[in-house]
Amino acid sequence: MVRIITRLDQVKKELKEQHKESLDFNIGTISGDLRAIIADENKEFKANEIKSIKIKQIKIKAEEITIISAYASNSYGQVLAVGEETSLPLSMDRSADTTLFAAARNCKIEEDDLLGVLILLPVKLTR
């Protein structure tokens, strides 16, 4: 009997572990990433005002959906959405460079302030 020895199983195991390490979290079999939403400009808000604000660019891979964390990361208000000048389909690589921010009270957002957290989840398109 001939036994063929290869590293294929070991390589598969290493790749699987490497993939897990590059992701920020797991929920059961679902893995995803977390990205800080950071202001890229100074902007003043009055209580209950909603305005767009430039943010540090966040890259979004093709076939990733985005969810805004509901946990209030900024004591002045909450991020409602992220986007870019031209909306692209889910099947393409995208990025976010602006956010819609709702102020709960009068404040001044400064460059490099943490505004919120973006959750990136991989999806498989079926059509």
Written description of the protein model:
With 127 residues, the protein is mainly beta. The protein is built from 1 helix and 9 strands; from the N terminus they run αβββββββββ. It has a 4-stranded antiparallel sheet with strand order 1-2-9-5, with no helix packed on it. A 3-stranded antiparallel sheet has the order 4-7-6, with no helix packed on it. The longest helix has 15 residues, at 8-22. The model has no long low-confidence stretch (mean pLDDT 87).
Largest sheet: 4 strands, antiparallel
Overall form: elongated
* Mean pLDDT over the full residue set: 87
Query: Structural class of the helix and strand makeup?
Result: mainly beta
Cα Rg:
20 Å
H and E order: HEEEEEEEEE
Can you give keywords for this protein?
4-stranded antiparallel beta sheet, 1 helix, mainly beta, 47% strand, 3-stranded antiparallel beta sheet, 127 residues
How would you summarize this macromolecular structure in one to three sentences?
It contains 1 helix and 9 strands. It is mainly beta and 127 residues long. The mean pLDDT is 87.
Topology:
Blueprint lengths: L7 H15 L2 E3 L2 E9 L4 E3 L4 E11 L3 E5 L8 E7 L10 E10 L3 E3 L4 E9 L5
Antiparallel strand pairs: 1-2, 2-9, 3-8, 4-7, 5-9, 6-7
